[in-house]
Write a structure and sequence with these properties.
The protein is built from eight helices and nine strands. The chain has 307 residues and is of the alpha+beta class. It folds into two domains: 142 residues, Beta-Lactamase, CATH 3.30.450; 135 residues, Reverse transcriptase/Diguanylate cyclase domain (Alpha-Beta Plaits), CATH 3.30.70. The chain has a five-stranded antiparallel β-sheet. The chain has a four-stranded antiparallel β-sheet with strand order 7-8-6-9, sandwiched between helices. A hairpin with a 5-residue loop joins β4 and β5. α1 runs antiparallel to α3, α3 runs antiparallel to α4 and α6 runs antiparallel to α7. The longest helix has 37 residues. The chain starts with 17 loop residues before the first helix and ends with a helix.
Length: 307
């Protein structure tokens, strides 16, 4: 009877998420194809961020936003270069393959670099890269579907955590949704922005015309805010006359356009408002961005003499 070695059952379990699949892929490619450094670069708009790396210690670390425009990896993602370049004019070697969403748009890139030329079977290596690129593209697309389902479930669960006066999320709902989105930002290297809005004349109106007038102002502010948000954006009443917005998967230009829409909407309603906005920085959290946006809001309020 011939005995064969069998893999431990735990090694046959499916990956729990895209992170695990990417780490295993980079380790395998580093082990089989060589190259000093392998990285998974997540693309978002015009920017990019290193999500995972495997191999030599490098100035490129997880969470950094590398400058890729002139590299072979960047050209590969746009179909402008080969998947494998074992010897380039600068005496180095490169490899790369794009990771795509189901609709064909770019999600990121698997890149490899070596400071020395490589002796490699380009045809075999290219086949391996294409295989893993397609596998990771499939896993990434399924992960995005899971993320979207999680987001819908979180929103449905948070419906019970709404502010009864304005109909937007309350502070508890905001805290719960912020945590979920923060994990998705970390997983995919996504950009996001937090806005903080404070009604400048709320106290004066409340004191002069009574609580009913103050309540009407809060409802009016909530309606003006929700009208200009995108489908996935989140708004909550986090304090007496303070609202917070999470603009998910947003680039700085998109955040600036949203800020302009908010100010225009409040101006049209005749509501004086101070607005602060901050981006979630790589390696930080959405709560840090919230604190920065709050500070920016108070700076605007002080400049304008708001109350």
């Amino acid at each position: 009877m011939v005995m064969t070695a069998s893999a431990p059952l735990h090694t046959l379990l499916p990956f729990g998420d895209l992170d695990g699949a990417v780490r295993a892929t980079l380790a395998y490619l580093h082990r089989t194809l060589g190259f000093e450094l392998w990285i998974f670069v997540r693309t978002e708009g015009r920017g990019s961020v290193i999500v995972e790396s495997e191999g030599a210690v490098s100035a490129l670390e997880r969470g950094m936003a590398p400058d890729l425009p002139e590299t072979l990896c960047a050209r590969v993602t746009h179909g402008e270069g080969p998947l494998i370049a074992p010897r380039t004019s600068d005496g180095q070697a490169y490899a790369g393959v794009p990771i795509l969403r189901g609709d064909g748009t770019l999600l990121g890139t698997i890149c490899a670099v070596d400071t020395h030329p490589r002796e490699i079977d380009c045809k075999e290596a290219e086949s391996t890269l294409l295989l893993f690129g397609r596998l990771l593209s499939f896993i990434a697309d399924r992960q995005l579907e899971v993320d979207e389902a999680e987001r819908r479930a979180e929103h449905a669960e948070a419906e019970a955590l709404t502010d009864p006066l304005t109909g937007v999320f309350n502070r508890r709902g905001w805290d719960r949704l912020l945590s979920g989105e923060d994990e998705r930002c970390r997983r995919f290297g996504r950009s996001a922005h937090v806005f903080v809005l404070d009604l400048d004349e709320f106290k004066q109106i409340n004191d002069t015309y009574g609580h009913a007038a103050g309540d009407r102002l809060l409802r009016q502010a909530a309606q003006a805010t929700t009208r200009v948000l995108r489908r996935h954006d989140i708004v909550a009443r986090t304090g007496g006359d303070e609202f917070a917005i999470l603009a998910v998967e947003s680039e700085p230009q998109q955040a600036e356009r949203l800020r302009a829409r908010l100010l225009a909407a409040f101006t049209a309603e005749g509501i004086a408002v101070s607005v602060g906005v901050a981006q979630r920085h790589t390696g930080a959290t959405l709560r840090h961005a919230w604190e920065e946006a709050d500070a920016a809001m108070y700076a605007m309020k002080n400049r304008r003499g708001g109350v």
